[in-house]
User: What shape does this take?
Amino acid sequence: MNEEQKAKHPGLTPIDDTHLTRESWKIFQVMAEFVEGFAGIRPSVSIFGSARTPTDHPYHQLAEDIARELSNAGFSVVSGGGPGIMEAANKGAQDGKSPSIGLNIQLPNKQAGNTYHDIALNFRHFFSRKVMFVKYASAYVVLPGGFGTLDELAEILTLVQTGKSRCIPIILVHKPFWEGLIGWFRETLLAQGTISEEDFDLFRVLDTPKEVVDAIFTHYEHRSFEPSARERELLLKL
Assistant: This one.
C-alpha cells in the first residue's frame, strides 16, 4: 500500500508484502503438480471411499475385488493413495494386470500413503489433485465414505451436469449405503426444484464387481474410451 492509499483509507490494514510474495509463488507449486500428471495412463477408473475402513470390513474386500476386476479388464486404477478403501483399491489393482496409481494428499494429520502403488504422486493442493482424478478418468466408482468421498461425488456430478466435463459412468457401490442419500435427493432436492429428474440419469447404483465392469463397458460399447476432440476441449478448461 502506497502513501496515497494509506491517506485515503486510514483504517485499512496494510497487506504484508512477504505474505503476498509467498502466495504468488504458490502458482508454481500448482503448475508442478499439474505437470507431474499421468496423461499416458489410459483408460483409467478413479475409485473413492473412506480412509477409515478397516482391512477386515466387507467394504474393504469389495473395493479390492472391484479394483482387481477393473485392472484385469484393462483399466488403470486411480485412488487417493491413502488407507482404507483407497488402499484396497490399489491392492486389488496391483493384483491385476494394469497399473495401480495413488494420488496422495499432504494433510495436517499426516495421512500415510499405502504401499500398493505402481505410480504415486503427492499433492499439496486439493484442487489440482481433483483435476487429476477427473481429467483422465473413463469412470468414477464411489464406495461408502465420508465427507471427502461425498465431495468427490458432488464434484463429478456437478461437472457432468453443467457440461464442464465429458459424460462418464458414475457408479455408486452398495445400494443399502446410498439409498438414504438418493432418497434425500428425490424427496428434498427434486421436490424443491434444485435438481431435475434427468439428473438421476447421471449415476447408477450397483452392488457387485461384475456389475461395475459391465456397466462401464456398456457405456463405451459404441464409442472409444478416449475423449473425442470436443471432450478434449472441455477437459482443457477444467
